[in-house]
Sequence to fold (651 residues):
Amino acid sequence: MKRLWAMTLARSLEFLRDTSALGWNLIFPLVMVAGMALIFSGPGQPLFKAAVIAPAGAALDAKLHPFLATPHVQFYAETSVEEALPKVQRHRIDMLIDLRTTPGKYWVNDQSPKGTTLERVLAGTAGPKLEREIASGAQIRYVDWVVPGVLGMNIMFSCLFGIGYVIVRYRKSGYLKRLNATPLRAIEFITAQLISRLALIMLITVVVFTGTNLFLHFRMEGSYLNLFLVALIGAISMIAMGLTVSARVTSEELAGGLLNLISSPMMVVSGVFFSMDGSPQILQAAAKIFPLTHMLEAARAVMLDGAGFMQIAPQLAILSAMAVVFLAIGASTFKWTQD
Amino acid sequence: MLPPYDSRLRLRPGSQLQCDMPDILTVRNLKKHFPKVQAVNGVSFEVAEGSCFGLLGPNGAGKSTTVEMLEGILKPSSGEILFRGEPIGPRYRERVGIQFQTTALQDFLTVKENLRFFHSLYEQGPSIEELVETCHLGEFMDRDSRKLSGGQRQRLLLAIALVNDPDLLFLDEPTTGLDPQARRNFWELVQSIKARGKTIVLTTHYMEEAYLLCDEIAIMDHGHIIARGTPNRLLAEHFNDSVLEIPSAELNGQASALGFTVRREAAELMTADVNDSVRKLLDAGVSLTHLKIRPRTLEDLFIRLTGREMRS
Fold:
């Protein structure tokens, strides 16, 4: 316990005194959130997005309904009203059309300017008349949606590179070899790295969230405790992932390459900046292998939909399982020396 | 103060081997295979408690591999290492101190913080104050450990190696890269540590260092020990001659006739009979004003045993 504490303290001091790294960890998410808020606070995006529930086997084209040929509108398939309707309520899509019945139905959000515009276009289109349904709900600003993404991404980078890269550097410089000559055990060293990084990244995340919330006032429907829990378990799983990558690697270049190989696709498919609704099924399935996907799902559920503990329990369970598996691999394959 | 270089044969301190002391380390038929090379090929020796044992050899001779096995860092392919009669186990790390040839420390930590950190990894050890005094760290305790001079850094690494009050201390080329002053200071430090009864295993490329500090040396080459004993006994065994050195110009072009080997301005002759050689020089009309007679050194022995070819 004494050894674990000493190692944790030494690593934390090193990080805190490395002002460039600390500054980067703090400034990067701040700049990202502010930038996103600026870019997306103006007029809405030109593209309209509409979900269509089609009869079995039918393609989403003009034959089904002439409206589906409207340019600058992205039509994509959904399978049930229950799943798609909340997206209209949350302004994530502008319209939902159900063409399985005659006459067909459509839902728009009466508080959404884009929905109303799209409705006008529909009224001016030839083809069978559709019945109007109203879905109400306040709009979620893009910044509300993107803030968990940006903070999650920062946690991801900090955990993967802050752990993976640092351990490989220690190994290459011979510091690990020096530690190996002491009674410090591998599990103590690894746990100390985990605790130190976890404490620092949680602190940074809380500071950045609170700081940006002062002037952006995020939507927060659920409990802060649940959100903290999501970030905590998510961070542990990604630290564990970094440990696994760095368990045996001896070159910083290889470590950097491997970490980029993991973090780049994770950033794209986990839904940091854009909703993955409507993207190919295979991509959505692939995204499930990344901890960030589950972390963002849970964080958005808490923040935007006010999900309680039981609703985010599946994601927390997946993240915990990932953490356990990665930690087990990392600890059992850990190497002190270069050869 | 250390004795001057030229008189070290007569004045070398602690040159008697402590034969009455039990062995702290016993090494039997130690071997280490790497995928492409047999680094250590059946090495056996003992290290007496309280002595300083020097392991010498050219690069690639297998001494670093041997030392890493003794330190418990590297697992031998076969053979035995006994610490006070017992195979080395998990408790061994509490009993040994290691100063690696190159050690990185954690960035952004001061000397004091580094010492405290390593101190807390062990169950016992001298106080930080004692270590600071022993290794003369007082003036730079609050400095970032990356900003130390070579000598200061080696003293800090030595202090870290002593942080658990070890019985057995490994020093792996501790003075490589230090300036002559820092090297001499470090030797004094090692001698004061030895005087407290610690056993030291030293590897070095400096024969002067081995001669001054070691009670017993082993010279390794190609994975074997090729010579072992006290420095003086080894010199007596391998050399029965002395070296006559004279400026080449004084020989009036008779260097080869007189059996001298010319090396730039100086010419050398190895001779077992100094009287006879000096007489011949006088007969040839050579002025003896600048003649030097020196005994053979460990360096001569090292070169004789390991050859002169280039090593990687």
